[in-house]
Amino acid sequence: MRTQQLLALFGVTILIAGVTGACAQIEQRDKRFYYRALWNFALRENLQALDIEFNGVDFGHSNLYENLLLTGAKDVPAIEDRARKETLRFIASRPVLNPNEEAIAPNYMKLAWKAQNTFDEAHALHRATYDIYSSDLADKDAAIRKVVAFYRDSKYAITAKRLDHQRLDTFPYSTSFRRKFPLFNATIWAYHYLQVAVYDPLGAAPTLDVKEHVVEPILRTYHGYLDKPPVEWTFMPMTAELSPKFAAEYPEIANIFDNLHMMHDNISDILTTDLLPTWEEKRQEIYRVTQAYYWASADTTNPFIVRDGQSHHSGSTPAVEPGAPGEHSGHSGGHQ
Predict the structure, then answer these.
(1) For 108, how many CA atoms within 13 A lie in the half-sphere containing its CB?
(2) d(Cα 312, Cα 100) in Å, to the nearest integer?
């Protein structure tokens, strides 16, 4: 009897040790709810056509990351043809709600949850600013400053300082995604065009009817890019070039969005490169690189912060729909 008790106790000890070891590998999830306010979902209620487009965009990155991970980024048709066209079909379905990205990319979410949390919170800041610009608030500036203050309180907040995108694009594996999958990369950059090009027209339009009208050429340009991905672009669209007034009024937010889009490019490269062949190596590199982006670590010692007088990129000019942002200046960008 005593022997059986000792064996049972030994078994329980082994089980506890195993569970403890497993828990050490489990990443705690601490997702934060968005800033609750009267303007929440104003974009969905007042400018549904634009809201639907952003819902489609939400699918793209997650679908890409999951497919890069599962294929090892070795099957070009699986990414450029199948996964990209899945994304285009989802966008064409005109989703009225944003998709559950954990369901789209379960393996990627488990691999790098903290990085995804960083994306989610920055995307929520995007959504909050669209809602404010689409609302009937009298003091939109005060509302924007509230959501930025809320965002800044998160440990996942991306720095509002200008980061050196040239340096962040010169890791040993940098540009691997855009070189191997130029069509999907250009599609991703088309999303980023849409996300930043709407701010100035929305901010200048006095009524909802006018706001609806001014985004039409932007949507035509965006869909032109989806139909014919702008592979001639050499760098991602930048906020100051497509919405200069917004970037001048809110330089911190413009920097956050540009840094967010650069972080997307870094992670696409990490998931593509053969220099990091295992999932664990990719996870470690994602977490190493993203440390450069966090607000809390972007202090004077961060080597990626752009100092006064430095340029963080230079670029080229895409063709755009008449009346759309970028018609004259282009999105720019490029590491020639």
Answers:
(1) 26
(2) 34
277: exposed, middle or buried (C-beta count within 10 Å: 0-12, 13-18, 19+)?
exposed
Q: How far apart are CA 25 and CA 21, in angstroms?
A: 7
Helix and strand totals (H; E) in the chain: 19, 0
pLDDT tens figures, 96-132: 998 999 999 999 999 999 999 999 999 999 999 999 9
Q: Which of 187, 58, 172 is nearest to 116 (CA)?
A: 58
Of residues 96, 61, 100, the one with CA closest to residue 264: 61
One-letter amino acid for residue 157 of the chain: A
For the entire predicted model, the pTM comes to: 0.85
57-61-63-69 Cα dihedral, nearest 10 degrees: 180
Identify the pLDDT of residue 257. 96
CA distances from 321 to 69, 166, 188, 240 (A): 35, 29, 19, 19
Q: State mean pLDDT over 185-209.
A: 96
Q: Which two tokens stand for residue 30?
A: 């601490």
Burial of 188: CB neighbours in 10 Å, binned 0-12, 13-18, 19+: buried
Amino acid at 46: N
pLDDT category of residue 15 using cuts at 50, 70 and 90: very low
